Every structure is written in C-alpha cells, then in structure tokens.
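TOPIC: backbone geometry
CONTENTS: sequence, structure tokens:
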Amino acid sequence: MKKRGAVEISLSMIIIIIIAVIVLISGLGLITGGLNSVKNLWESALGSAEADLRENPSYDKPIVWSLGDVANVDIGKTYVIEVGVLNTQNSRKIDEPSLDCVNLNVDFNMPTGPKEIESGDVETWKGTFKISGVAKDTYICTLEFKGISEEIAITTT
C-alpha cells in the first residue's frame, strides 16, 4: 500500500510541475509581448523627438535638418524629420526642399509646398525620410532649396 501511495503522489507532483511549466512559459510570452509594446511606444516617442532641429540655420550653414550633418540611418526605417532653412536669397519664395543622393534610394517627403520667407528669416518644413535597397555605406547627398544647398553625409546601417 505504501508504494501505491508514493506513486500517486509522484504522478500528482509531475502533473503539477507540468502545469507550472506551462503557466510559466505562457507568462513569459505575455511579459515579452508587453515589453515589445513598451519598446515600440518608446521608439515612437523618440521618433517624434527626432524631428527637432539640433541647431539653427545660419549664414555659414543656411540649411539644417534634424538628423544632423552626418546621419546614421537604418535601412528601411522611416524617420520623422524637420528641415530648417535661412533665406539667404533676395527672393521671398522658397520652394520645398529636395534631396539629391547618388546611388541611394531615398524616399524624402515634405508635404507642404513653397513658402514665402523674408530674406534673413528662418522657416521649417516637417516630413519623412526613408532609405531602402542600398548597400551599407556612406553617401554624400545635397539637400537643396531654390538656390540654397547644403551637403550631408548619410551612413546606412
């Protein structure tokens, strides 16, 4: 009789351990899923902060953008960016910016059109920037407005 009771306790213990392992694995799945959600929220919050200009445009550097002069960007990731320009021209009308990069697949969208800016004033444009289908390397691009341009180095990772 004593052996039979020991076997019953052992089977009960094995069943409890199996149930505990299943609950533990399910709990870990929920925790990692929750952490991934928190990570995505954190990255989107930082992404919106990226749109702030790091420096103001000046006569020495009339165009600046929120990714900086030497931008390290992930291939396939969309960045929310801000571009600022100091009107150094005599004309009041400034066209929306364009980004010209050799051997670089760039999706550069600035949703607003031309703006009227007094000579010597600063204006900003907000939009998105994404690179796709290129080799990991450093590329030189020209960010240009009507008659105003600035070279930028973009390193893809």
About this structure: The chain has a mean pLDDT of 77. Residues 1-49 form one domain.
